[in-house]
Automatic annotation (TrEMBL):
Entry's transmembrane regions: none
Name of protein: Semaphorin-2A-like
Domain Sema residues, every copy: 1-140
Organism: Acanthaster planci
GO cellular component: plasma membrane
GO biological process, one term: positive regulation of cell migration
PANTHER family xref list: SEMAPHORIN (PTHR11036), SEMAPHORIN-1A (PTHR11036:SF127)
InterPro entries: Semap_dom, Semap_dom_sf, Semaphorin, WD40/YVTN_repeat-like_dom_sf
């Protein structure tokens, strides 16, 4: 992705669609936006659509693992944010559009043998009745 001729890294951001008279967020729209922090997202490739479930929004993707220091590895991830995330507050470095409840975890799919073989690249997801099914592959 490029913005004004400069390469950028996508990140998750939000915009408030509606708030009540006491400024409580009634609904939000979660979108992708530019943010340059490899510890948040590092060249993510999102799969499927975000899933809204029990007051949280889940994103499935693969990215270059910033915690892997010996070369380059791609890990599959799930990230979650709260639907009612209100963003930064006054007197903080965070803006109201920043997500403050962002958490991500590695998804691992491997063979259960003595020498496991890892399928590190999530390719697609399917969500039905509160269960998420994922398709994983090896690096081509």
């Amino acid at each position: 992705m490029e913005v004004a001729g400069k390469p950028t890294r996508p990140a998750i951001s939000k915009s408030v669609l509606q708030s009540d008279s006491s400024q409580n967020v009634m609904s939000i729209s979660v979108t992708l936006m530019s943010k340059d922090d490899v510890n948040v997202l590092n060249g993510p490739q999102f799969v499927g659509d975000p899933i809204s479930y029990n007051g949280r929004v889940y994103f499935f993707y693969r990215e270059v693992a910033s915690e892997f220091i010996e070369g380059k590895a791609v890990y599959s991830r799930v990230a979650v944010i709260c639907e009612n995330d209100k963003g930064g507050r006054e007197f903080t470095a965070l803006k109201p559009t920043d997500i403050v409840t962002f958490v991500k975890a590695r998804l691992e799919c491997s063979t259960g043998t003595t020498f496991p073989y890892f399928y590190n690249e999530i390719r697609d997801i399917y969500h039905s009745n509160g269960v998420v099914f994922a398709v994983f592959a090896t690096r081509p």
